[in-house]
Amino acid sequence: MAFEKGGENAYDVVIIGAGISGINFGYRLQERNPDLSYIILDGRHEMGGTWSLFQYPGIRSDSDLYTFGFPWRPWTEETSIAGGPLILNYLKESAQMYGIDKKILFHHQVNAANYSSEHKTWSFDVTANKTEKKTFRSKFVLLCTGYYDYHEPLKTVIPGIDDFKGKVIHPQFWPKDLDYANKNVVIVGSGATSVTVVPAMSRTASHVTMLQRSPSYILSTPSEDALERFIRRWFPVYYQHKLIRWKWIAVPFLLVTFCQYFPSLGKKMFRSATEPQLPPTVSYSPNFTPDYNPFEQRVCFCPDADFYRALRSGKASVETGVIEKVTADSVKLTSGKELHPDIIVTATGLKVRVGGGIDVSVDGKPYNVPEKYVWKGVMLQDLPNAAFVIGYVDASWTLGADATAQMICRMLNQMKKEGVDEIIPRLSDKEKNTMKDAPLLRLKSTYVKKGKDVLPKAADRGQWQARSYYWKDYLLAHYGDIKSSIEWNRS
């Protein structure tokens, strides 16, 4: 494989994004492809991605850290759900421990990427420090840019919101100087962000109301359960992380599978876990009765039942209804009820974006992502020498990111072994005529529905099926077919 060596800003691999996916890719390249040079480009001032950007009260993981953390650097804290600052510190320590931090260029915003079929090379137009123009080149590119827009939130139409005289805040751009002590707060939305913000703000606010048009499933999870305490007490330290990690891979997988095959029983199980947590003033129906089955949208987890404890304290409440109009000092619902907040938090979701908004082209021709299919969940149809990361919606993002990294590292080694310098996923004529479209993400969430015209497509068969679950993807990464529906070209 004719990887390029030397030259200014020329690397074998360019990784775009220094979040959890980019850092993990850097480690896997060092581990499995040590002969390849790489650089990580990030437009922000520090690594961490989501965990650097989001600063809203109580920011934390929405999955356990034993699987959300890196498999190569164990999560050693005795809590499964962790706060944002702790996660960011963990990422920085991990990158520093393995020298990955020395491979990152911050304040390097990638504006455009063009692949040359003649030279089998990617070129990147980059703005450094907001003013300096640079060009980087590589043979392979890894897009670790996440799935949402860092600069613009999802816009939701709320009638009259511009007439409100108080503060209107979106969690993605939380002001550091916001004082909500002794204020009445209305949080619009019922997803993981709302479930996080409600207990955090209720500690100092006068009252916090979660206003939802439709409810979510909210499941309490202990910071450390009995099985984890048993493992920590009776097993050597070397085995503790491995056992707890596999427990956190296995149990959610079994729970999700159970709910998919037995949705009615799944609903009953969630009800039996939720009702005992509610105070007499909060009814189960309609506030905790979603109109979809468990895991058709993301299930919200609250550590040590902090969300329900906030409800029982009387400092927080849930209101289910439709906003008719926001006035200068109130939120009027179609039911006739009125709320009188000092602050409105619009926790209404994220704006989906693929590739960090980079203008991608092949031989100068724009590449249109929504028209293309995803090969094995890791590469895009007709896009040479490129991979992108999309994680799981019902398990930790990092599990999917690492399965992708291991698959690509294996393919890079195979390219070198065979003297191949270009791989391109291609649809055969038979596939074009027989396969049907399928969702890339198995979610019915509003932000996913609104982002369907931005995301690439999956299919119902072959190498173009959507990513399924970690066990399968792990085996595919190590032993699966990497030749079907993909061209392996030698110069």
TrEMBL record:
Q: Which InterPro entries match?
A: FAD-binding_MO, FAD/NAD-bd_sf, Flavin_mOase-like
Keyword Oxidoreductase in record: yes
Which parts pass through the membrane?
Answer: none
Say if the entry is tagged with keyword Flavoprotein.
yes
- A Gene Ontology molecular-function term? flavin adenine dinucleotide binding
Q: Which cofactor does it need?
A: FAD
What UniProt keywords are attached to this protein's entry? Answer: FAD, Flavoprotein, Monooxygenase, NADP, Oxidoreductase
Gene3D superfamilies in the record: FAD/NAD(P)-binding domain
According to the UniProt entry, the coiled-coil residues are none
UniProt protein name = Monooxygenase
Write down the species. Answer: Neohortaea acidophila
